[in-house]
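Severity: low
Component: inverse-folding endpoint
Summary: output formatting inconsistent between runs
Steps to reproduce: submit the following structure tokens with default settings.
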């Protein structure tokens, strides 16, 4: 408990220890608004568990964009609902499902491959090729990121050019803020385009 303030507030000076982080599962629909220029962003967090996916259809109409967050480390993890099911495969199926939805055929999807900091360590301990034998990039971080991103891109059932991938580390606040700015620019650009 000595580091509780570091869990609640992170900055570079705190030498933040990511092992202190807690995962809070989205259980319900959560709405928030981010004031930004030139738009106000209304965000609905619908969660990714099987139970929550049943509620996605309520939120899928009239969207300017979708932010789909996936754990880069999911290739070597299982889902809570069914421990024998690979987390990345479950996430790939979820993405494929939403890209097949008729109302999202022209909606840009911003894929955030999260937990990049952990992924860099995980690929050294758990080779991707153990789960995906077709992967031949070894422990090269960027090749591994590209492989995961390509797995998601192959599941997009829409014409090319509507899925945009970002590798993020939500604990690195500077990098995450830069990624968020890129996401905002992409949302603004694609919203004005359509």
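Observed output (run 2 of 3):
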């Amino acid at each position: 408990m000595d580091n509780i303030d570091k869990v609640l507030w992170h900055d570079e000076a705190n030498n933040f220890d990511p092992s202190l982080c807690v995962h809070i599962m989205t259980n319900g629909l959560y709405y928030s608004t981010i004031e930004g220029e030139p738009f106000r962003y209304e965000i609905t967090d619908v969660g990714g568990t099987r139970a929550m996916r049943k509620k996605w259809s309520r939120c899928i109409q009239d969207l300017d964009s979708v932010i789909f967050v996936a754990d880069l480390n999911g290739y070597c993890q299982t889902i809570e609902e069914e421990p024998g099911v690979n987390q990345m495969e479950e996430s790939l199926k979820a993405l494929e499902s939403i890209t097949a939805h008729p109302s999202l055929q022209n909606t840009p999807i911003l894929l955030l491959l999260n937990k990049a900091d952990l992924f860099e360590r995980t690929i050294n301990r758990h080779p991707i090729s153990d789960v995906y034998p077709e992967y031949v990039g070894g422990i090269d971080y960027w090749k591994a990121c590209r492989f995961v991103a390509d797995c998601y891109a192959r599941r997009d059932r829409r014409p090319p050019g509507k899925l945009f991938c970002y590798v993020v580390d939500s604990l690195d606040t500077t990098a995450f803020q830069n990624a968020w700015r890129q996401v905002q620019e992409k949302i603004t650009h694609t919203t004005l385009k359509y």
